[in-house]
Design a protein that fits this description.
203 residues, Multidrug-efflux Transporter Regulator, Chain: A, Domain 2, Arc Repressor Mutant, subunit A, 2 domains, two-stranded antiparallel sheet, 10 helices, 7 strands, 48% helix
């Protein structure tokens, strides 16, 4: 299966499983994905059935004790062909999770195919193929609350699906570098200032 061959970073795993990135790190740090996390090139990646274990760990947080989650996830990782996992009186069907992850992996691949990275185009900034429109800029607009119709109007070459894929791509592959904490203009002193009485302001 596709998820059995996957080796994903924490960001990629978060985008595929819909588990918040902070929760991905917490689950990994808690050792719940033992045997499904490897260190490659100085970066932790989730492999094999780890994606299923990750989503299961997130979805059972309010249903099982920490030790119960650990036992269930261990069984999921160690039994790659198991469709159901039993824990005391509880039986978990992992097939819906497998389906959701397979769909997430397919969507991520579609997002990657939509993006072109060419050092001769905006210095290698990820752009929509055939355009000079940066993918992360579109994802940032959506994250800032810009409605999708407004983005489509501003960028008529894009489709609604491309905008959705841009959001997913940006989640899996964040923009490099740290954003400035405050815009530069906030550090500048005002050129001039005046004081007014509230009664003097126009109505």
């Amino acid at each position: 299966m596709a998820q059995a061959r996957a080796a994903l970073s924490a960001n990629e795993a978060a985008s595929v499983t819909s588990v918040p990135l902070k929760q991905v790190h917490r689950i990994v740090d808690a050792g719940l994905l033992e045997g499904a996390v490897e260190n490659r090139a100085g970066m932790r990646v989730i492999v094999g059935r780890g994606l299923i274990g990750l989503k299961l760990a997130h979805e059972t947080a309010d249903l099982l004790t920490p030790e119960g989650r650990r036992q269930v996830i261990k069984k999921v990782i160690q039994r790659p062909k198991a469709k159901t996992i039993a824990h005391h009186a509880l039986t978990l069907d992992v097939r819906p999770i497998e389906t959701a992850i397979r769909r997430g992996l397919d969507t991520l691949e579609k997002a990657k195919r939509m993006v072109a990275i060419d050092k001769d185009v905006l210095g290698g900034t990820p752009c929509f193929k055939g355009t000079r429109i940066p993918v992360h800029d579109i994802a940032t607009m959506i994250a800032n609350g810009d409605p999708k119709p407004a983005v489509l109007k501003a960028y008529p070459r894009l489709t609604a699906e491309q905008i959705d894929l841009a959001v997913l791509y940006a989640e899996a592959y964040p923009r490099r570098g740290r954003p400035r904490r405050k815009p530069l203009w906030r550090k500048a002193r005002p050129v001039a200032s005046q004081r007014f009485s509230i009664r003097d302001l126009p109505r």
